Amino acid sequence: MVLRTHGLVVGHDRSPACGPVDVALERGDVLSVVGDNGAGKSTLLRTVLGLLEPVGGRVEVLGRAVDEREAWFRAAVASVLDTEAFIPGVTAREHLLLVARGHATPGPEGVVDDLLDRFGILDAGSRYPASLSSGQRRRLLLAAAFARPRELMVLDEPEQRLDGDMRRALATMIRDEQARGTAVLLATHDPVLLREVGAPVLVVGDRCVVVHAQDAADRLAGDRG
Ligand SMILES: Nc1ncnc2c1ncn2[C@@H]1O[C@H](COP(=O)(O)OP(=O)(O)OP(=O)(O)O)[C@@H](O)[C@H]1O
């Protein structure tokens, strides 16, 4: 089992935002997470990543208690949250190479060039992140998560600032992750991403329930329209 939560209640300052949630992801399982603004999606993902203490219950990754300071956890878990952290004075390509080499990714040069291409930022490779558009920086941040080994991928609203084509390409990449055996936890507001990923959807709110991707996508599309 890659990710398991047991009666997990998440929140801030011991005040619950959502839960209890019981999640069980095996290799190749994807679970999308939706909910209104403030429902607790990011709080849930941050708790799974060990960045927040659970208010109740517990989280296990690969059968062990989560500790984001430990090497095994860092080696197994790739995440993209809403924070950007780029090393100053390092180009986009160098940033990806540092990530790949830091995680001992085999053939780092080829992996990085392929990722720059797949994320449509080949031309941006020689530029500094600060000089890129916000969407290009988002693509770079996502590419970094794919530049390293991973057994669990945690993505918090990865669609932010991406155009339609890139969102669809990202859905394909998530399905490819599934095929290669990565477990993926994906919080999103995007009905297209939900539909194209096609995974079960955990709706967080007063009560947490799992629904079909199509139903969740229809509901999100309805909210927008
Ligand atoms: N740093 C924080 N300190 C205290 N409370 C917080 C903090 N961050 C978020 N919250 C609260 O926790 C609850 C859940 O917030 P969270 O960010 O997890 O929601 P979300 O579902 O990700 O929302 P959104 O769709 O807007 O991104 C909200 O009531 C929010 O106000």
Automatic annotation (TrEMBL):
Coiled coil: none annotated. Pfam families: ABC_tran. Residues 3-224 form the ABC transporter domain. Keywords: ATP-binding, Nucleotide-binding, Transport. One of its GO terms (molecular function) is ATP hydrolysis activity. PANTHER family: ABC TRANSPORTER ATP-BINDING PROTEIN ALBC-RELATED. This is ABC transporter ATP-binding protein.
